[in-house]
Amino acid sequence: MSRQSFLYFLVVIFVAVIVGLGGVIAGSLVVYRAISEQQDRLQSAIPEISQSPAAVQAPVSTTITNFEDAVTQAVENVGPAVVTVVGIVPGRESFFGNVPDTPVSGSGVYISEEGYIVTNNHVVENTIQVSVILADGTEIPAEIIGTEKYADLAVLKVDGSVPMKAELGNSDELRPGETVIAIGSPLGDFKNTVTVGVISGTGRMLDTGLGYEIENLIQTDAAINSGNSGGPLVNLEGEIIGINTLVIRGTDMGSAIAEGLGFAIPANTVRVVVEQLIQKGFFSRPYLGVNMQPITPDISRMYDLPVEWGVYITSVEPTSPAGISGLQQGDILTKIGDIPLDDENTFINALFAHSPGETVRLDVLRQGNVINIEVTFGETMSG
Q1: Which domains does the chain show, CATH number per domain?
Q2: So what's the pLDDT on residue 58?
Q3: Best exposed site among 55, 222, 268, 288 by fewest CB in 10 Å?
Q4: Catalytic residues, which ones?
Q5: CB count, 10 Å around CB of 167?
């Protein structure tokens, strides 16, 4: 190879190397720019990702805080109006000797600036002396204005200044799952105890074992204990939506122990009954004027009766609505108005579904024949 050819070869090699390096550098620049752009995009997204947990957590923290504040505020709005009700049931003679006077206690709540307090009938039933203990420990004598056995309500009145009155809400608007607060004096010692739960159900019915059922009750899992009876069940707005009346724990032999089964009388029932008790001293109920024996499937089989449900008329007051309408001893009453007497409707509940002065048709079985009798109910002072 000549010198000139060798030099030409070196020039070609040099040019090729330079071109190759340029391609590598250009390619590297392209890759570098792509990586840089990708990193910029990732970094711009990182603040959004880091903020997302905070954005999710903030409402939860706020909700919890607001819930606690709502409960605290509701208790502050109603708590001073809640009282402990203390009564004395007189002693009596028994098979085992003289039984001394017995103290009883429950709860109550001021509902007016005139000093009226609502509680349960069973808290003050058969008492000869009643007083209330305020949230600050002051004890004041109380007067029983009126009672209503079948709704388990009573109204008391005390003199002096009212520490606070609580407002009755609208119990028809309650929904299962809604938060509620029970305030009362469990065991008579732990005054103004607060428990929180939810509405477990509405429209509940419980058999009292006394020939009638308490209807349309509110069920809650807020802890209710002995001594809470008569205290308020409150919503988060600080309104009374019920008056606590009883709790079921399972008392029959072999039955499971139940927890969280508390019941309250709805505020709308309380409002109607209490207004009459304050105005009249009694609650007006329809009056028929018969003595009767409930018929159940067991009794029907035992006495070979023609129906499984109803009431057997054992006596009729001659001048009562029943006597005037023609009801007789030995009649079997099976229906009052549109309400049949069966496993869901007792005689008392079917009767109390009507009003004094109302005229209804009774379905009666007499000597094997079904007859219809119209009766106009009288009025009785239920208490």
Answers
A1: 168-280 (2.40.10.10), 285-382 (2.30.42.10)
A2: 43
A3: 55
A4: 122, 152, 229
A5: 14
